[in-house]
Every structure is written in structure tokens, then in C-alpha cells.
Specification:
Strand content: over 45%
Number of helices: 3
Low-confidence stretches: 5-36
Shape: globular
Largest sheet: 20 strands, antiparallel
Structural class: mainly beta
Oligomer: single chain
Length: 712
């Protein structure tokens, strides 16, 4: 094969070191994402509820045997609102705090916790523009990556077994799904289960409240199932909506279910047989009754999406395929949670056999009476017991998967905040477990004796020290307002401003602030000339560093933000989009030798889809990850040879195909730019040779030859 041009020696991870020293910067560490995960919907969703007029501006969630406290930091002058997250230990002490500053008003719509990190689904409002954004954070709350999504709003998030996530949302009234890899990339040049995007157009409008990955009996990706609602081709005004997809997002089936009234699917759980094969799905939601109130609604469908009686019975125990639960007033479904494994085990009590039962627990809430409802049913649809409990706190949270183990499963959380900082915070965890002490009975073999036997549900109280989420900016402004002498109102016109760091501004001034076309000189030699607003770089301008770096382009709030060009004295140049002082968006990076990269950037590095061109005519087209050509891509040589397949750091590494100008080609495995592993070589006349290859040499049809023929 032709040797590739190795001018790609300087990665696109070049840091703007002087700019970081001037304006600040942070390093990000990639979070390891593992299942299981938990999803909480803290705003505008069915998984949270503020009771008795409690504040809806702060929440505490279980996380990694600790807690995450989430709230807002509001700027009373500018009106901007930022999301604040703190990690608390088991006693409530703050371990870290992160403020995610962005222009506009941020609203958290989904918190999705993972093993070593979490994902935030955010809606941002700036003037008349609303943006849906996903932010992946590591275990310290540092942002690993963040992406604006091409959808109107986010409705659900789920983790996948390839360390990625799938996001459900709505675009123009249709369900919109984006499958991201662990780097937050969803655009792919080839068909991939890790990266794809689809919009599902149908009559009427639809949305998804929950989406889950379905695994087969060998734990491989078998696609996805979602539930929500639709108002197209319905039995009533609105129906429960379900859709089953394959691993690539292709529709296997979609169905409507419901009554003549309004119905909605909230949550879905796959049902598996003893061999762990999925045989159907249980969907919980809400239905409107004849009184106009809302009841819990429960159905079972088979793996093909057909409404069925419960498995193992020709008819459901009550003769109906659909179940409803509720009384006077509004009751709403919030979650379906599988029971702990210990519930499935047969047990003994004084020689009496107690049959184990699997199945789920349906969690709902009585909105009017502020009570939580628990319905326990087994895998055949039998209702084993129902309980109604008061909600002990002021806020109710329910997640798709929360804490738990083989013995205990936690279903929901309730929190009571104290009136003053320093007092104790009360957190209540609703758990299902086995209780009951077995008295010593020598007639029962020791191996058959268990201390627990009866299924039970109760609130478990936890006490945490309360440290409030502080809004430092608001405290400073409130303190300023309390001072006996308010700042004087300065005049407007042409003038000078000398800052505490001895930097010096010359230009137009409006009410005492730099405003218009002006110049700023820093003591260290940094120089800015351009537009100002409210004492900050805002608009177009030029920023020059004493070491020779120059940025010319758009600024926002003292940061490079928008379209611009950054040049280095060594000859490198970047032209394209900037976000918060970093290359982020579409751009072109040029090296002095003539190598050019054009494509996506994220967090100051080439990331996404792009093209690299060399002066000798070689070209790479494909995925970029963290400044490196890694993923699926194509490489073209001036001689007419070309490669398409897996690439790692610009080397052919993985499965791919290599073509020669004479019409011959190789399909198989590559390593370090060489034919290495299993594959087919095809001659121009169509003759094929299958076997194993090592360092471009054919070693035969036996894999052992890869180890024994070291000198070939």
C-alpha cells in the first residue's frame, strides 16, 4: 500500500495558552459511562412534584452513594439564570460545586445519572430563540462535552451499552431521536448503531416520555422501545403511543392504545422469560375517566406490539386486557420499577413454602390528596398488593432506575428543606424489601432458613446537613444596595477608564461604562481594539498578544464568540466559529506547510466530521475525535488507491476495504496501516482468496499462523 503523508503530526488540540491565561480555561476529563443509570425529570415532567406550595427551584438526587443538589443562580440585573450543581456526601457536606454559565435563561428538563458522571438536558432561552442542549459531565461535575441539538425540545434520555446515550425529543410535532456515541457524536458517514439521527413523521403530533434500550439474551443491542402519546388516528382525543426500533433506529412497529378518552404512556418495562428473552412490554400511563379525572392506566403488549392478556393466562384475572387504578380526583403514573431479585426466590417460614414472584411495582401519585400509590403485580399480571402512603416531604422525585440491590429497591424520594442554613435536611427514600425475622427452627435445614420473607414497602428517613446553594453574585449586589452611598451616575461622552489591574481604556463612554468603538491596553502588553458594550468586548474587534497571536472577529461578553480568525506567529491559522473562547462549530485550520483541515470543532479540538487535505493531493474524509482522525473514514491517494473503514489516529486500524487502481481490493482487518488479520483479497478478474494476513503478507487459512510465522 502507498505510505500515507505523515504531516499530521501537530494535532488540532493546540491550546490558546495566552488567551487561557488572560480569560481563564478548564480541562475536561472523559467520564466512563456504565449501566445501570437513572433518569430524573425535575421540571415539567411526570417524575417530580412540588407539594403544598414548596419551591420548585431546588432538588436533591441520590448519586453514587452520595447526592447531587441542583438549583439555579439568578442574575437580578441581567435576568440571566445559570444551572448550579453540588455534590454532597452521605452527611450532606459539599464535595464540589459547579456553575454552568451560559447566556440567557437555562431550565433543566432532565437529569440522567451514570456510574461516573451525569447528563443534563437543558432548554436555553435567549430573547426569542430557544435551544435544546445536552451536557455530559464527569464525576467532578466538569463538562466533558456539550452539544446543541437540532430539536425543539428534549423529552427523554437513556444510556446504552456502548457507553453512549440516546436522546428523544420533538421537532415540528414529530418524535426526533439522536443516538450519540460516548464523545457526543451522532453524525456518521456510514451505517452505524452507535451514531444516527431520525425523525419519525406520522399523522398528528407525537412525543416520547421514555425510551429504553432493549438487550437480547446475550446482552447485545436489540434496539429500542419508547412510549408517549399521539393525537393522530386515535381511539379518543389522545392515545398511548409505542414504537419499537432496531439498533439502527429503523421502525419495527408502532402502535396506538387507549380508550375513548385522553390517554398517555409514561413509562415502559420489557418483560423477559426465564431465558432472558424479551416476550413483551408493560406500559404504565394515565387515562381520563368519565368524571374527567385521571386514573393510572396499565397494559401489556407482546413483542410485536399487540395488546394481550397477561402472559401465562388466556384472560387477565379480571377478564380485561387493560387495567386502571384510582379513585376520586387525579392519580398519575410516575414509574415502573422491577422488584429485587430476592422477591423471585422461593422461601420458607416454619416449614411453609412461600413462592417467589417476579414482576414490577407501579408507582403513582394522588395529586389531590398528595399521597403516593404503589401497586405490586407479578409477571403474570396478578395484583399481589396495593398500598397508599402519605408523602412525608415537600418534594417528590421518582426515577426510572434508582438505588438498589438484590434485596432492596428504592422507588421514590421525598425531601423537606429546613428554613435556615445549618439545620438538618430530611430526605425520605421509598423502598420495597423483604421483612420479617424467622425464629430459630431446628426442623428446617440451615441452608433453607432466611431472615426475610414478607414483601414490604416503607419510607426510610435520612438526615443531611443543609448547606444552601448560594448565589454569590446576588449577595454582592444586595450588599451593594445596602450601602449608605450609592455609586454616582457618570456622564457620557469620550473618555478614559483605568481598571484596578492598571489596564487602560480610551474611547466612548455611556453612563460611566465603555460603550462603542474603543481601545484597551493591558499592562502585560495585550491590546484590544473594537466594539464595546457594558465595559466588555461586544461586537467585532481585534485582540493582539505580545507573543504575536492575533484574533480578529466577533466577541460577546469579553469572550471570543461567533465568527473569527486566530493566527499564530508560527504560521498556523484558524478561521471559523468560536464559542466561549474556544474553537467550536464549523471551521478551517491551516498549517504553514499547506496541510488544511476543514470540518467540525468542539471544545477547541477537531471533533465530528471533517476533511484533511495535504499539498501532495492526499485526502482524509471522516470522523474526528479529540483532535485526531479516529472513527469511520476514507483516505484517498493521488495514485488512485483509497481506503474506507475504521481509522485510529489517522492509521488504518480495524475493519475496512482497500482498493488499488488495477481493480483489485482487500476487505478485512487492518492494523497500523497494514493488512493484518482475517480478510479477502480479490483480484481484478474476480478471483477471491480468504485467509489471514500479517504485515501485508498472506499467511494462510489458519489463524495460528499469525503467531508462528513471525519472519514472513
Amino acid at each position: 500500500m502507498t505510505n500515507k503523508n505523515k504531516l499530521w503530526c501537530r494535532t488540532l488540540g493546540l491550546t490558546l495558552s495566552l488567551l487561557v491565561l488572560l480569560l481563564g480555561g478548564a480541562a475536561a476529563v472523559q467520564a466512563e459511562v456504565e449501566l445501570p443509570a437513572s433518569t430524573f425529570l425535575p421540571f415539567d415532567g411526570q417524575h417530580a412534584m412540588a407539594l403544598s406550595g414548596a419551591s420548585g427551584e431546588r432538588w436533591i438526587y441520590p448519586y453514587d452513594q452520595n447526592y447531587l443538589q441542583v438549583g439555579y443562580q439568578q442574575d437580578s440585573w441581567s435576568g440571566e439564570r445559570d444551572l448550579v450543581v453540588q455534590k454532597l456526601d452521605a452527611e450532606g457536606k459539599v464535595q464540589w460545586k459547579q456553575v454552568y454559565e451560559r447566556a440567557g435563561q437555562d431550565t433543566l428538563v432532565i437529569l440522567h445519572t451514570q456510574k461516573n458522571g451525569f447528563v443534563l438536558g437543558i432548554h436555553n432561552q435567549q430573547e426569542n430563540k430557544k435551544t435544546a442542549r445536552i451536557m455530559q459531565c464527569d464525576g467532578n461535575g466538569e463538562v466533558v462535552w456539550q452539544r446543541d441539538l437540532p430539536m425543539d425540545k428534549i423529552t427523554a434520555i437513556a444510556s446504552t451499552n456502548d457507553k453512549g446515550i440516546i436522546v428523544a425529543g420533538v421537532s415540528d410535532g414529530d418524535i426526533h431521536l439522536i443516538k450519540m456515541d460516548e464523545q457526543g457524536i451522532w453524525k456518521s458517514s456510514s451505517r452505524s448503531t452507535k451514531q444516527w439521527e431520525r425523525t419519525y413523521a406520522a399523522s398528528g403530533s407525537q412525543y416520547a416520555n421514555e425510551i429504553l434500550q432493549v438487550l437480547d439474551e446475550d446482552e447485545y443491542n436489540d434496539g429500542y422501545v419508547l412510549t408517549g402519546a399521539t393525537d393522530g388516528s386515535t381511539n379518543g382525543g389522545q392515545d398511548v403511543y409505542m414504537m419499537r426500533l432496531d439498533a439502527y433506529g429503523e421502525v419495527k412497529w408502532s402502535r396506538n392504545f387507549g380508550t375513548e378518552q385522553d390517554d398517555e404512556g409514561i413509562t415502559v418495562v420489557p418483560m423477559a422469560d426465564q431465558d432472558d428473552k424479551v416476550v413483551g412490554y408493560v406500559v404504565a400511563g394515565n387515562t381520563e375517566n368519565r368524571r374527567g379525572d385521571t386514573d393510572l392506566y396499565l397494559i401489556y403488549v407482546d413483542k410485536y406490539g399487540h395488546l394481550q392478556s397477561w402472559p401465562g393466562y388466556q384472560y387477565a384475572p379480571d377478564g380485561r386486557k387493560e387495567r386502571t387504578y384510582g379513585g376520586a380526583g387525579d392519580q398519575r403514573a410516575m414509574a415502573l420499577v422491577a422488584v429485587p431479585d430476592s422477591f423471585k426466590d422461593d422461601r420458607k417460614l416454619r416449614g411453609e413454602d412461600i413462592e417467589g414472584r417476579g414482576g414490577c411495582v407501579l408507582v403513582g401519585v394522588d395529586v389531590d390528596d398528595e399521597e403516593i400509590l404503589i401497586v405490586r403485580f407479578d409477571e403474570t399480571g396478578h395484583v399481589l398488593w396495593e398500598k397508599t402512603l402519605d408523602i412525608p416531604g415537600d418534594i417528590l422525585l421518582v426515577g426510572t432506575i434508582t438505588e438498589g440491590d438484590d434485596e432492596t429497591q428504592y422507588l421514590a424520594y421525598s425531601v423537606t428543606y429546613p428554613g435556615n442554613q445549618g439545620q438538618n435536611l430530611k430526605m425520605y427514600a421509598l423502598k420495597v424489601y423483604l421483612e420479617g425475622v424467622l425464629e430459630e427452627d431446628k426442623t428446617i435445614p440451615q441452608d433453607d432458613q432466611k431472615e426475610t420473607n414478607h414483601e414490604a414497602v416503607t419510607w426510610e428517613e435520612r438526615t443531611l446537613k443543609y448547606e444552601a446553594l448560594r448565589d454569590i453574585g446576588k449577595e454582592i449586589k444586595d450588599l451593594l444596595a445596602q450601602q449608605p452611598y450609592r455609586p454616582l451616575t457618570a456622564e457620557s461622552g469620550w473618555g478614559e477608564i483605568e481598571w484596578p489591574d492598571l489596564s487602560y481604556y480610551l474611547g466612548p463612554i455611556t453612563v460611566g461604562k465603555a460603550d462603542g468603538e474603543g481601545t484597551l491596553l493591558f499592562k502585560n502588553g495585550v491590546w484590544y481594539k473594537g466594539q464595546w458594550k457594558d465595559n466588555m468586548f461586544n461586537g467585532t474587534g481585534m485582540l493582539r498578544f505580545p507573543s504575536g497571536e492575533v484574533y480578529q472577529g466577533e466577541f460577546k461578553d469579553h469572550m471570543m464568540h461567533g465568527q473569527g480568525t486566530f493566527t499564530w506567529p508560527t504560521g498556523e491559522k484558524y478561521s471559523g466559529e468560536f464559542r466561549m473562547n474556544r474553537r467550536d462549530g464549523k471551521g478551517v485550520f491551516t498549517w504553514p506547510g499547506g496541510v488544511v483541515y476543514e470540518g467540525d470543532f468542539a471544545e477547541d479540538q477537531a471533533h465530528g466530521q471533517g476533511v484533511i487535505r495535504w499539498p501532495n493531493g492526499e485526502r482524509y474524509e471522516g470522523q474526528m475525535q479529540d483532535g485526531q482522525a479516529t472513527g469511520q473514514g476514507s483516505y484517498y491517494f493521488p495514485s488512485g488507491e483509497w481506503y474506507r473503514g475504521e481509522v485510529s489516529n489517522l492509521t488504518f486500524d480495524g475493519v475496512g476495504v482497500y482498493h488499488w487502481p488495477d481493480g483489485s481490493y482487500f476487505v478485512g482487518q487492518f492494523q497500523n496501516d497494514r493488512l493484518y488479520g482475517e480478510g479477502y483479497y480479490v483480484w481484478p478478474n474476480g478471483v477471491q482468496q480468504w485467509g489471514y494476513w500479517k504485515e501485508d503478507h498472506y499467511v494462510g487459512i489458519h489463524e495460528e499462523a499469525m503467531e508462528t510465522r513471525n519472519r514472513w
